[in-house]
Amino acid sequence: MTDLLRRLLRTPQGAIGSALLVLLALLCLLGPELAPRDPEAIDFLGRFRPPGAQNWLGADQLGRDVLSRLMTGARSTIPLALLATLLGTLAGAVIGTLSAYLGGRWDEAIMRNVDAVMAIPGLLLALLLVSSLGKGSLNATLAIAIAFTPGMARVTRSVALNVRAQDYVKAALARGEHASFIVLREMLPNVVGPVVVETTIRVAFAVMLFATLSFLGLGAQPPAPEWGLMVAEARRFVHQAPWIILAPALAIGVTAIAFNLLGDGLRDALNPRDER
Amino acid sequence: MTAAPPASPVLAIENYSLDYTLRQGTARVLDGVNLSIGKGEVVGLVGESGSGKSSLAWAIMRHLPRNAVEASGRLSLGRLDLRGLDAKGLQAVRGKRIGMVFQDPSTALNPTLRLGEQVIEVLMRHRGLGRAEARDAAEAALAEVELRDPAALMRRYPHEASGGEKQRVVIATAFATAPELILFDEPTTALDVITGARILELFARLRERTGVAALYISHDLGLVSRVADRVSVLRQGRIVEEGAPEAVFLDPRHDYTRRLVAAVPRPHRRLVDDAAGGDTVLAADGLSVRYGRRRLFRPPPPPATKAVSLEVRAGEILGVVGESGSGKSSLARGLTGLAEFDGGIHATGRRLDHARKMDKAYRRAVQIVFQHPDSSLNPRMRIGDILARPLKLYGGALSDIPALLEQVRLPADYARKYPHQLSGGEKQRVAIARAFAARPSLVICDEITAALDVSVQAQVIEWLLALRRQHGTAYLFITHDLNLIRQIAHRIAVMQQGELVDLRDAAAIDAPDAHPYTRALIAASPAPVG
Amino acid sequence: MSTGWLLRRLFLVAYTVLVVSVLVFAITQVLPADAAVTLLGENATPEALAAVRDRLGLNDPIWLQYWHWLTAALTGDFGHSMRTGQPVAPMMLTALSRSLLLALLSILLMLAVAVPLGLWAALRQGKAADLVTGFISYIGVSLPEFVTATLLLIVLADWLQWLPATGYVPPGEDFWDSMAHLVLPVLTVSIIMVAHVSRMVRSETIDVLHSDYIRAARLKGLAPRSVLLRHVLRNALLPVITIVALDVGYLLGGIIVVEEIFALPGIGRQLIVAITARDLPPSRPARWSWP
After folding, report:
1. Which pLDDT does position C79 carry in this prediction?
2. Which positions in chain C have a beta carbon within 8 angstroms of at least one beta carbon in chain A?
3. CA-nearest residue of chain C to A204?
4. Could you tell me if residue A195 is inside a domain?
5. Which of A178, B25, B37, C54 is the most buried (most CB within 10 A)?
6. Which of A167-171, A242-246, B457-461, C29-33 has the lowest mean pLDDT?
7. pLDDT reported for residue A167
């Protein structure tokens, strides 16, 4: 484990991604405590105050401190996106591994159905689901999880098939090992790596998707300081106070970049062959 | 042919040294190499993996990777200094004065261009022909390499031609510009034995006709000795020996060459001289192995083996020879329950007609070792854990692991290592140790030395025979190397396109009443010089 | 390319469409709350609700509802909006045509930029040009459409005042003005696709450049230009079609957001409006009429 960490930090992507991620984690955990002001505190006198000594990132249309809202908003934006990805990965992994293990006709039948569902673009599927389930952060999370499932099923199946074709799995089969041993001890440790990489990169996409849904008014609801919502609310004031919209927009971008970098770094770190 | 280097050589390499800059430092790939090729001469360059032989070819063609640093030396084509060439100069030399024939014709040809086009473009470029003339010249060039109906072949795409046809196209392209020198980089390694032999015969004829000089690079000392006028042996970047093939083969001076020569399989040098035991350990009865799971909408594929019947006696080494697609590996898969089959297997006193019937007793008695050492060991398990599995399954103590490692001459502390820390040969030894942990009656060896260097192969065979003497195990040894199997097998089975066409004693393999295919295989695998 | 293969492919397409229709039906018709309540409000009498449910065919078994929905859709009858009472189909068609225009322009722009960019980056692999384009692409892929759209809005429409911010002008009315209004939306959608597709083109081209046959072509002494055009491009561009096809799905998602931000009356906007108002026509569309 520590060995993996060391290798991860040796790559530039891994190092920067990890650093950013630690920062984001801190924000999620301690954001509200560390925020300089109360994110909900309305101050009509301070409306649209530009960034300066009083409000480091400026104040929004209700005089609320943008920086504080940003720091508190991490908790509304990132963890749910993470949860959605994990749920989607779990569901997808079960379907994908099962399909790979069954093989033959079953595999093909399951995958054709997965492909058909994937024909609906992610955002559209999430939108349809949210429209039926109702607005709100939790529904948006569920919708994203469901939208991710077919993609993750494809990825896990492809990795699982690749592992299944390796000779050490065949050796285990030829030894007469039980199916559970083969799947858990021979296949799973080799499947986990690439799947983790893919999941990490998907979190970036989930963050973006979640913010988009909130932006469209279908995810987090006001007055939550969710970053996508902040961008939506600030649209009207783009001309007079661009910082209200820039801060959360860039925060979303940085988060997505952080996860992308981490995913790339993990991919390189999990390839043990450049050791010798 | 004399062993002295020629007076005015076509290619002269003088004191050439090449380094690669890696993350860990600089690696010297070639060290003070001296080589020269005279007019019409064929010089063989023999080396195992890591010897730097391919790097020398790239150096001559001036196609070195970015992290290559040429430390010293001269490379001259006639009077032309190759190192001093600029891009334009290179384009005038490559393909025109020096040709190259690559290892794998499937990857050396552009998959989206017709075969004819790929010959024509070279002729247009280097012989300045117009399109129509180039087409005729291309057709003539393909006829020279003895391809039937060149015009039709020219219209085909690479994936529509066989390996042998593609390699002939590549050879035709190289010869068509009448170069002074052609580099051959393992041209028959990716081909079947019989196809490869025909290519070599073609090469001999072309050489006579054109008098071109050639550098023939290969890992196969036996093959090179039949093809070359002079042989240079390359070891870790240094030329350790050179001379006429007979001299190098019959009277090697350097230690390494001696070991290399000793490792080359020679059919008449038997390594096993006892007789096989009496009882049958395993018998296959009309075994038809089916490959591939059944898919939706598609007809099931034909069986990979057609009703194969054979038997292995206690302590016997039964060789199974055939080319790719012969079904020999499928046979191994059927016998270990990795593929479905029709027919029966007699072993451990029972008759099995389905993989599901293979119980623990069978699994213990019949073990398998695979071809690729890189993929047969789980990269995320330590060697000790890998060896512990059969012990747990078939009874045995974990304390046996050091003894198992000792049997294949590996130190006991290797148990803590991971597979990627071992070399290819070491991994294969672990795979063998794993098979023997079960104390089997039969070990199926599925081309286990095909991916190994010749010297490593010789060692692995040595251990296999030692283990056999110790435990009395029988082997089903699958290989495409007829020379190798003739050294060790008691009986040899020959497979062709899924059928067992011949099964006879090893001593009688070249008898006149052998199957024509068997005789073709023997003709294609001649004993090396000496 | 046998007929068998073709038939198999067509069957798969039909099957995919079927599954998608079932899925959409399930999500939009089966999951939501009682359509009758949505229509008449919370305070309607049980009798009125029952009457409406009957009219809408909500009491039919699900598979019958699906059948009606499907057959109606196939004949072009998509029901009536519960809000406005107007037939949905003609509205959808106009909106669709506008979205298609946006989509088409975006794809064209994307192809014109992404393919050469990817090729160029591949040819200059490891050098400054490659690293810079890589960096920019990375950022492009990490910004959701609404962020890119907002940034472009701020810079091009607000600060520099080069382009109108939002709104739609039909091409028939005033061509140049119409185009001016489309620049920002097309740019937004294209930027992300360019980032994505150019990386894939780059990676494909790098694979081709390192392949054995390109090495063989170089060692045959062919002119570099000929190697590039005949050998590299032929093989690198073939998968581009697949790459673009895969991205089209993503494009649809981008269009939804962009239409919302730039107030373009396309199909995406319709969808958002309908969703936020929960206006999805129930399954017996043909029989419905506003009382």
Report:
1. 66
2. 12, 15-16, 18-20, 23-24, 27-28, 31-32, 138-139, 141-147, 150-151, 153-154, 158, 249-254, 256-257, 260-261, 271-272, 274-276, 278, 280
3. C142
4. yes
5. B37
6. C29-33
7. 92
Tell me the CB-side half-sphere exposure of residue B122, using CA atoms within 13 A.
34
* Assigned domain for A55 exists: no
DSSP state letters, B267-320: TTS-S--SPP-SSEEEEEEEEEEE-S---TTSPPPPPSS-SEEEEEETT-EEEE
Q: Are B321 and B494 in contact (CB under 8 A)?
A: yes
Of C12, C142, C153, the CB nearest to A256: C142
List beta partners, residue B100.
Answer: B183
**Does residue C85 surpass a pLDDT of 90?**
no
Pair of tokens at residue A97: 């591994």
Q: Using an 8 Å Cβ cutoff, are C227 and A185 in contact?
A: no
pLDDT at position C32: 61
Are B125 and C226 inside 8 Å of each other by CB?
Answer: yes
- Separation CA B210–CA A44 (nearest Å): 95
Question: Higher confidence at residue C22 or residue C74?
Answer: C22
* Count of domains forming chain A: 1
pLDDT of residue C38: 62
Q: Is A120 on the interface with C (CB under 8 A)?
A: yes
Residue ranges of domains in chain B: 105-175, 280-377+436-524
Fill in the amino acid letter for B504: R
Q: Whole-angstrom Cα distance, residue A209 to residue A85?
A: 11
- Tokens 């581009």 appear where? C240
Cβ-contact B331, B305 below 8 angstroms? yes
C-beta separation of B10 from B77 below 8 A: yes
Q: What is the pLDDT of residues A214-264, one digit of tens each?
A: 888 888 888 788 888 888 888 888 778 888 888 888 899 899 999 988 988
| Domain boundaries, position A159 | 2-37+65-270
- Is pLDDT at C164 greater than 80 in this prediction? no
| Averaged pLDDT for residues C63-74 | 77
Instruction: Flag whether residue B188 sits within 8 Å of chain A, measured between CB atoms.
Output: no
pLDDT tier at A1 (50, 70, 90 boundaries)?
A: low
- Smallest Cβ–Cβ distance between C27 and the set A121, A132, A239 belongs to A132
Residues of chain B with confidence (pLDDT) below 70: 1-7, 292-297, 529-530
* pLDDT of the residue at B318: 94
| pLDDT of amino acid C229 | 83
- Does A30 fall in a domain? yes
ipTM over 0.85 threshold: no
Check residue B1 and give its pLDDT: 41
Are B66 and B43 in contact by the 8 Å Cβ rule? The answer is: no
Distance CA A9, CA A31 (A): 25
DSSP β-bridge partners for residue B367:
B443
Pairwise CA distance, residues B140 & C3, whole Å: 38
Which one of B100, B110, B113 has the shortest CB-CB distance to C219?
B100
A187: domain CATH number is 1.10.3720.10
Compute φ and ψ for B30, nearest 5 degrees: -130, 135
> Which CATH number fits the domain B280-377+436-524, given the four candidates 3.40.50.300, 3.40.50.970, 3.30.2310.20, 3.90.870.10?
3.40.50.300
Q: For residue B50, how many C-alpha atoms fall within 13 Å in the half-sphere facing its CB?
A: 7
Q: Does A57 fall in a domain?
A: no
**pTM of the prediction?**
0.82
What single DSSP character describes residue C80?
B
Tens of pLDDT, residues C91-143: 778 888 888 888 999 999 999 999 999 999 988 888 888 888 888 888 888 88
Give the minimum alpha-carbon distance from A257 to chain B in angstroms, rounded to a whole number.
Answer: 28
Distance from CA of A55 to the nearest CA of C (A): 22
Task: Measure in Å the smallest separation between the Cα of C22 and chain A Cα atoms.
Answer: 10
